[in-house]
Amino acid sequence: MKNGCKLSFLAAAIMATASVSASVIVEPVPVNSPFIKDVKGNIIEDYSRQSDKSVPLFSMRALVQSSEQRGDWFNMSANYTNVQGVGADYVYGSVIPPLKPQPIIVAVLDSGVDIDHEDLRNKLWTNKGEIPDNGIDDDGNGYVDDIHGWNFLGNSFGVNVDQDTLEVTREYKKYLELVKNQQWIPPRKREYYKKVEAEYLEAVANYQRSLETVTTTLEQANQFKETITELTDHKDFTVDGLQVLLTHPDPKVVQAAEGLLTIFDSWYSFDYLESRKNSYQTSLDYHYNLELDTRRDIVMDDINNPWEKGYGNNDVKGPVGSHGTHVAGIIAAQRNNGIGIDGLADYAQIMAVRMVPNGDERDKDIANAVRYAVDNGAKIINMSFGKSYSPRKFIVDNAFRYAARKGVLIVHSAGNSSNDNDIKPSFPNRFAKFKWSRPISTWLDVGASAQYANDSLVASFSNYGKETVDVFAPGYRILSSTPNNTYAVKSGTSMAAPVVSGVAAMVWSRYPDLSAVELKKLLMDQSRPYPGLLVKNPSSPQDLVPFSDLSISGGVVDAESIFANLQNR
User: Fold this and answer.
1) Pair 47, 267: CB distance under 8 Å
2) pTM
3) pLDDT at 30
4) SS3 sequence, 398-418?
5) Phi, psi of 320 (to 5 degrees)
6) Is 272 helix (H, G, I), strand (E, B) or coil?
7) CB of 549 within 8 A of CB of 529?
8) I need a surface site. Which of 75, 78, 172, 416 has the fewest CB within 10 A?
9) Which of 411, 400, 404 is nearest to 497 (CA)?
10) Are residues 491 and 78 in contact, defined by beta-carbon separation less than 8 angstroms?
């Protein structure tokens, strides 16, 4: 690692924050889409219902526990309510066997976790071999003061990467440098780089067009709003609030209100327009910026050495950590403490491993994070992220094989691109770069399901795959913890994966003799089937397909069924 530091990392370290992700998607101008996604496909705002971005501390607890409006509805029973949860509440109340549970370490590989959160601070993994804050690697594992995990996106000065580029940008930049230096590129490699070039240029053009469109639309909307405010004292510029102006005596007011309502038919609201504009601008400024290199300026590792370890720092929250904190809460937020939500696994211990920036994660960091988790005792690794290119996949495959050999369950989000993963894979995945290697045996890919057993059971954004997605789990409008003792609703397969990790931790803490392969089999075989149910195909919502055809198991993960099966053995 380099010993010096540059002033430029200070500027890079305070970049604007966004959210991280489940899969890569190039999203141009929306067509009747209620979701705002960042460049990686992660849902950052949801307009499918009235937005409730932040939930007051006691609001959920004020609801009756069986209410269908409950934010942590993934806990509810599909057998005793209409809500298609995993039945954790019922298991804890009626099924849990009289066995002394043991702690299960769940590594959350993500954007960072707020370890001081009121609903998580008692549910953390603690490295007992390390003396806090003494600046010494007491346990000799290569990481100094790694008390609750590690951050691979920072330096020893405590400065952290926030924004980073996408892998397609890095690969295109690599190609441009080869061309500039007139280096020979083998035909197969040239074909690969030409594909990268085409994707990069198309994405940049899409985002530029989208930014121009939304900017023009926002300007027009503001003109309509200005007309209304000049002629009236009207304050409510929502779709509902504008209805009253349609009968206004001034035809200019009526015309402006009609103009806004026409815009909102596609763009929903001023907030939606602003969010779209900010998202497109962020993508162009950071994720597709060929000149941006926060990695070089901040982490200061040897990026050309894929086997290097020891870089980073112990700030496991990072600049924001919203996504990772939400994921951790679904798994392990303290149950029955009268605040926030109930996480799924009462004996889970969260190991926070930060390695996902606002951009694409690096293969080197993925591999190091997996090895760190395994070597420090994690039995389950939750990965709610993904990307479209993996130039050093061999080191990632090596790490996953290592985890599988050590009996670790690997849970990964399927992605939010409404894609068939059988046709278009994302990375990381269970399939090795070299075809003769077997797929990772302890790997689970998880799609997102919604609350009710109707044609919308599969979340409209969720990826799927009869051969590549193992099981579905609740991932639509999920309430969980967010930094600074707050709670928010988020949607995505990023939320579905930790539901599976949480159920797995519930089971493993009480049946520790199960192997990872056996536990994976239980999660799939005991998933809840929906015989004959036809659902909207996420790729073409006008078409109905059997729910059973969208994953390998054909079901939604079900804690009730798993525990009933184990008790009957």
Assistant:
1) no
2) 0.91
3) 45
4) HHHHHHHHCCCEEEEECCCCC
5) -135, -65
6) helix
7) no
8) 78
9) 411
10) no
- The 10s digit of each residue's pLDDT in 182-196 is 999 999 999 999 999
CA atoms within 13 A on the CB side of 1: 20
Nearest Cα neighbor of 148 from 13, 324, 3, 323 is 324
475, exposed or middle or buried, with CB in 10 Å at 0-12, 13-18, 19+? buried
Query: What does the longest C-alpha to C-alpha distance in the chain come to?
Result: 78
Instruction: Establish how many alpha carbons lie within 13 A of residue 545's alpha carbon, considering only the half-sphere containing its beta carbon.
Output: 19
Three-class DSSP category at 420: strand
Would you give the distance in Å from CA 281 to the centre of its chain? 21
* Straight-line distance from the first to the last Cα atom of the chain, in angstroms, rounded to the nearest whole number: 53
Report the 10 Å Cβ neighbour count for 246: 11
| Structure confidence by residue, pLDDT tens digits, 243-273 | 999 999 999 999 999 999 999 998 999 999 9
337, 394 Cβ separation under 8 angstroms: no
492 φψ region: left (φ > 0), alpha (ψ -120 to 50), beta (else)? left
* DSSP states along 377-405: T-SEEEE---BS--TTHHHHHHHHHHHHH
Assess contact for 493 and 412: CB atoms under 8 A.
no
Contacts 24+ apart (CB under 8 A), 227-230: 227/252, 227/253, 227/256, 228/253, 228/256, 228/257, 228/260
Closest by alpha carbon to 25, among 46, 44, 12? 44
List helix spans (H) across 47-186. Answer: 88-90, 167-180
Helix (H, G, I), strand (E, B), or coil: what is residue 274?
A: helix
- Judge whether 18 and 40 are in contact, CB under 8 Å: no
Residue 544's identity, in one-letter code, is L
> Which residue in 472, 501, 509 sits closest to 92, CA to CA?
509
pLDDT tens-digit profile of 450-498? 999 999 999 999 999 999 999 999 999 999 999 999 999 999 999 999 9
Q: Are 472 and 449 in contact (CB under 8 A)?
A: yes
> Can you tell me the distance from the alpha carbon of 477 to that of 341, in angstroms, rounded to the nearest whole number?
14
The residues that bridge with 449 in the sheet, in sequence order, are 458, 474
Q: How far, in Å, CA of 270 to CA of 314, rounded?
A: 40
Phi then psi for residue 209, to 5 deg, are -65, -45
Residues with catalytic function: 293, 323, 494
Q: Which of 98 and 226 is assigned the larger pLDDT? A: 226
382 bridge partner residues: 108, 411
Beta carbons of 406 and 441 less than 8 angstroms apart: no
- How many other β-carbons are positioned within 10 Å of the β-carbon of residue 305? 11
What is the rounded CA–CA span in Å between residue 152 and residue 131?
A: 20
Per-residue pLDDT at 57 exceeds 80: no
Segments in 410-567 forming alpha helices (H): 493-510, 516-525, 559-567
Q: 98 or 184, which is more confident? A: 184
Nearest one of 502, 498, 404, 481 to 446, comparing CA atoms: 498
Q: Are 88 and 79 in contact (CB under 8 A)?
A: no
